């Protein structure tokens, strides 16, 4: 009950974040479109987030939360807070120094990470300028992530899930009020990203303060707790790094393709991030501290039930989302973005990439459910190894598929690598027996897949039968009708096939 309610809380707030993110991206598409200026901004927006996910939200969180929850349960809040202070001092010292070095050497950094920009000096110079602004975001958001880890370890999820909403609201406000005040709208957005880092850190710090977890600033020092943390963190950092390398590879290779390719991939990824964020990220956020506590108390059966319940819930929501986004890619992108500087050509290119990303959605969510099983056992090495192999596969597929499908090939490679990652993690857990997915859960996932296929057939037939819409409002109404009708067909098929019983569905909705 508590697990599902916590997941619903995080998922609901993440839904608000994704909706405001859509409004943000619609404004960006209207003003910037998909071209050299938008490419430069999206590189500037992505780079600090790449490094943040490798350090703060990637390796540090998965290593920090189990140690923090152990100290909290075993030695009390004072010991846990002292550990938080020690970690904060070291991590901030390293990240501030690294960010300053990256800002100084930004031309060299971009020559490596966006080599295609060098051929167009104006785009390269703009990207350097924007990246120097946005990189201040890295230490700010990393400090926020540390406080967020402490709150999540205390089972306090709401304030952390609200923080990304601030980023979206600040960028929306900047676009609506100040888009023409600087050299380009991309400059306005870059400064807004930096300001949002201050706002998010302040928001989470206030929440941490209410629970007695504001760390005092100390001089960095090495302690046994930090030694244990970094023993766990190094393999996890490699794992987070290889996952982010997948995304960096996409940017590097997309920069070598036609102008606008980075933007096509960005917009497509943003839409597919809605179900991934609402379902996958929410499940992963809640599952790790829950499994850590259950395994520490020796409740292996309870931990397995938690994992099976959330895997089934993730597939219940993600399978139809993947099918719907793949089938309705063109109308979804058209309704969301096709206005202003974003024309029909950009819609077609973005929709093709989104359909390719959508195929991998269930795998992305499965990885979010399966990885915490390893992390909660303080095994960060196994997921790292699997993720590293997946990156190698992704790179090989990128180089092959981009020759035939351009930027769409990069999206296809990402989805295939995600399925490989999920498949190997599943096989490793099944091999251990006690931690494997139960046969009952597999049977019900198969029924959910059958219901998704029924929904897909209905959507294809319905989409083909609709006449061309004479205007944007009718097009949006048609899309809403398709989505609503598809959801009803899917729900009926799930109940008919027994993927989820009616009583369980009511329980999920109630909780």
Structure in words:
With 511 residues, the chain is an all-alpha fold. The protein has 19 helices and no strands. It has helices at residues 2-32, 36-74, 77-104, 106-113, 121-134, 137-153, 158-178, 185-210, 224-254, 261-296, 300-327, 329-337, 344-359, 361-376, 381-405, 407-432, 439-465, 472-497, 502-510. The relative contact order is 0.11. The model has no long low-confidence stretch (mean pLDDT 81).
**Total number of helices:** 19
DSSP E strands, number:
0
Low-confidence blocks of residues: none
Strand-pairing-aware structural class: mainly alpha
Helix content: over 70%
Rg, nearest Å:
22 Å
Order of helices and strands: HHHHHHHHHHHHHHHHHHH
**Binned strand content:** under 5%
The span between the termini is: 7 Å
Quick one: biggest sheet?
none
Average residue pLDDT: 81
Give the CA-based shape. globular
Write the layout of secondary structure elements.
Blueprint (H helix, E strand, L loop, with lengths): L1 H31 L3 H39 L2 H28 L1 H8 L7 H14 L2 H17 L4 H21 L6 H26 L13 H31 L6 H36 L3 H28 L1 H9 L6 H16 L1 H16 L4 H25 L1 H26 L6 H27 L6 H26 L4 H9 L1
Structure characteristics:
511 residues; single chain; 19 helices; mainly alpha; 85% helix
Brief sketch in words of this structure:
By secondary structure, the protein is an all-alpha fold. It contains 19 helices and no strands.
């Amino acid at each position: 009950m508590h697990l599902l309610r916590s997941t619903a809380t995080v998922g609901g707030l993440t839904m608000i974040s994704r909706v405001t993110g859509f409004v943000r991206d619609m404004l960006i598409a209207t003003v910037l479109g998909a071209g050299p200026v938008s490419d430069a901004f999206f590189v500037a927006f992505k780079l600090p987030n790449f490094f943040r996910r490798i350090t703060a939200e990637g390796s540090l969180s998965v290593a920090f939360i189990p140690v923090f929850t152990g100290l909290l349960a075993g030695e009390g809040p004072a010991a846990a807070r002292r550990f938080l202070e020690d970690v904060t001092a070291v991590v901030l010292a390293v990240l501030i120094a690294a960010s300053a070095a990256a800002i100084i050497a930004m031309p060299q950094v971009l020559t490596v990470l966006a080599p295609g920009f060098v051929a167009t000096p104006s785009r390269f110079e703009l990207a350097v300028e924007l990246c120097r602004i946005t990189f201040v975001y890295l230490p700010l958001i990393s400090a926020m992530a540390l406080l967020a880890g402490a709150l999540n370890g205390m089972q306090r999820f709401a304030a952390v899930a609200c923080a990304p909403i601030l980023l979206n609201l600040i960028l929306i406000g900047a676009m609506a009020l100040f888009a023409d005040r600087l050299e380009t709208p991309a400059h306005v957005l870059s400064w807004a990203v930096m300001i949002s880092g201050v706002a998010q850190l302040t928001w989470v710090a206030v929440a941490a303060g209410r629970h007695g977890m504001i760390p005092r600033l100390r001089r960095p020092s090495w302690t046994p707790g930090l030694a244990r943390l970094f023993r766990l963190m190094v393999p996890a950092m490699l794992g987070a790094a290889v996952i982010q390398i997948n995304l960096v590879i996409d940017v590097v290779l997309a920069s070598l393709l036609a102008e606008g390719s980075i933007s096509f991939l960005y917009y497509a990824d943003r839409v597919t991030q809605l179900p991934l964020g609402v379902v996958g990220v929410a499940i992963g956020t809640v599952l790790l501290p829950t499994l850590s506590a259950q395994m520490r108390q020796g409740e292996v059966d309870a931990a397995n039930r938690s994992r099976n319940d959330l895997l089934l819930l993730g597939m219940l929501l993600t399978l139809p989302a993947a099918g719907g986004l793949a089938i309705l890619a063109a109308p979804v992108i058209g309704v969301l973005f096709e206005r202003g500087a974003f024309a029909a050509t950009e819609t077609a290119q973005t929709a093709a990439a989104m359909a390719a990303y959508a195929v991998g959605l269930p795998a992305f969510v499965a990885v979010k459910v399966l990885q915490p099983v390893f992390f909660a056992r303080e095994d960060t090495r196994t997921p790292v190894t699997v993720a590293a192999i997946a990156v190698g596969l992704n790179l090989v597929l990128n180089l092959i598929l981009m020759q035939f499908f351009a930027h769409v090939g990069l999206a296809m490679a990402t989805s295939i690598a995600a399925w490989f990652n999920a498949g190997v993690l599943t096989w490793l857990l099944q091999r251990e027996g006690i931690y494997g997915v139960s046969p009952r859960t597999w049977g019900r996932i198969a029924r959910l897949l059958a219901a998704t296929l029924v929904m897909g057939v209905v959507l294809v037939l319905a989409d083909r039968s609709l006449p061309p819409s004479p205007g944007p409002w009718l097009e949006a109404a048609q899309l809403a009708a398709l989505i609503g009708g598809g959801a009803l067909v899917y729900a009926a098929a799930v109940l008919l096939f027994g993927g989820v019983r009616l009583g369980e569905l009511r329980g999920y909705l109630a909780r």
